[in-house]
Write a structure and sequence with these properties.
Layout lengths: L2 E3 L21 E3 L25 E3 L4 E3 L24 H7 L5 H14 L3 H7 L5 H11 L14 H4 L4 H7 L2 E5 L3 E6 L5 H11 L2 E6 L2 H12 L13 H4 L14 H14 L2 E9 L2 E8 L2 E8 L6 H9 L12 E8 L2 E12 L2 E10 H4 L10 H11 L4 E6 L6 H12 L6 E5 L10 E4 L8 H9 L5 E4 L5 H12 L3 E6 L4 H10 L4 H7 E13 L5 E3 L3 H10 L1 H7 L6 E3 L11 E12 L2 H8 L4 H10 L5 H8 L7 H7 L2
Parallel strand pairs: 6-7, 14-18, 14-19, 15-16, 15-17, 17-18
Antiparallel strand pairs: 1-2, 3-4, 5-6, 8-9, 8-13, 9-10, 11-12, 12-13, 19-22, 20-21
Amino acid sequence: MPRLKIVDEPSVEDDAEERSTPGDVDDVPVDAHAAPVDADDVPVDHDDDDDDEDLTVGPDELSIDETPFDVDELRVPRDEEEPARRARLGDWLIAHGFVSSADVESALVEQRVTGEALGGLLVARGVVDEEELSRALAGIFDLPYRDLVESPPDPDAIRRLPQSFCRRRVVLPVAFDGTNLLVAISDPADVLTLDDAQVVAGTQVDAVIASPAQLRVALDQAFTSGSPVYISPDTSTADSGDDGVDPASKSDAHVAGFVENLLDRAVSERASDVHIEPSERGLRFRMRVDGVLHDALDLSPSVPTGVVNRIKILAGLDIAEHRRPQDGRMSFTSSGRPIDARIATLPTSHGESLTLRLLDRDHGLLNIDRLGFEADALQRLRQAYGRPWGLILAVGPTGSGKSTTIYSILTEINSPSRNVVTVEDPVEYDIPGIKQTQVHAKIGYTFAAGLRAILRADPDVIVVGEIRDAETAHTAAKAALTGHLVLSTLHANDAATAIARLLEMSLEPYLVASSLTGVVAQRLVRRLCPNCKVAYKPEDDERMTIASMMPDVAAQALPEDVTLYGPAGCARCDHTGYYGRSAVYEVMVVTARIRTLVLEQASATQIEEAAVAEGMQRLRENGIDKVPAGTTSFAELTRCIA
């Protein structure tokens, strides 16, 4: 989306840093919403039949008319004549007598230190209240201000958006005239919420500004007792006309465009997975962002199977097969970025469920220096994979970033002088200069079979996607003993437990001790959003909770005067308080002492204590270091590391 940098006359804010959180308008989207449009001015096209795409799926043939889809139909119209200049927040407040120049200058000095929004600082200092700030933002963005106490929301309008969407996005419908839905928001720069509201409501959406406090109270009053029944777009078509239906069910002509818009939205929101789940109430769309699933969209039962069939066609799957799971792949471009997607179908009692795993080619492969390793841990890891032979494991639960770590090591050690061969399930990223193969269980090409074949191909470095069984474990260990560097992943809770897992797979202790050279255990925690994270002093009960969960490290890691950080929520992080993820690691190098313990079949606890004595930092200790630093919150850390 194009953005317009406001260049104004010299003012008290000329040195302020760029801000994008609510309450700051130094850098605002050009396409912010104008005032509500009169219903009589909204053109309604009742002749949709001529533009419909013919999507017909029969048992013997598939006919697809690729009619170009106008994405603008799913977007909130913008005013192309919007003024090119807007007053800055501080200048507007000064000009209208709400604050003095000294107040703004003092707040800007604090902002340079804390990075907090100017509006929030002025409210916290008591210079202005939330209502005055909201009126200022309404004036700057040329939007109406609505007092939700004097003008409460219309119950019929509230039913136009689902409760989950309203609470998550902090938005509330307040009026509906049959064509236009008027919604109250507190952040006029949050155009993504307005766009999504239009997609969910299936009608034109315009905005009014309300104070955050009034909006929170109105949301509670609207949905606490006797929650209104959500009216999906196509159940209200009798009142709103043909343009009131949702984009996927409006006609088959919109299926291709709806899918394209859905994928674009998933990429823009940094989703790693998209879930499309049928139910008796319709089609539910969920996205996994920063490791956490959240609802994205709900469509009514009248939505055709065209959405599911469209994705299956793009992935090269059999659209006539609904009873068996299928796997496929497809590629597409979003905002100029090449994206690969893995698609898995699963038959359910209400129809086929689809899961899309999105892989960004430009951002998936990271340099190992950017993975968040501490200097000492990274040096220990490089010591392990710097050898010409040995077995190196990345361990952790599903979704902990093990493959990313292996790919990063592989990228660093890859060179023309080395023959690098992989066996993966599936191949997630294509790396130039490396021979990559994929498991195909139906023809007997398993990890173990692939590994045996690779050993006959004169490899220097071998990558095994995952050690799942005893045969693969034995072959990988023996390959490491015969002069090959072997990289693989394993499901284990920590580095020491990985040794116990190998022994449970019937590997002899001497084989583990001789072949294993290093283990990386890891988790991914969500990063606090730098725009809205808040500092606080932990209460005694929270300190006691930390001490009870991590008694051996909490006392020295959390002094009494420690400052912790927590999530708040803003438009940038989609009101979650988190943006992106960071890794928490422990790196265990297999030394002579640890080899002796393995041969003696010592417990995982004894092996861990020996590794710590030789310099290993535990997972939870590494994680606690990130809490006072403001990287993540303690609640998030305990969610990922029990």
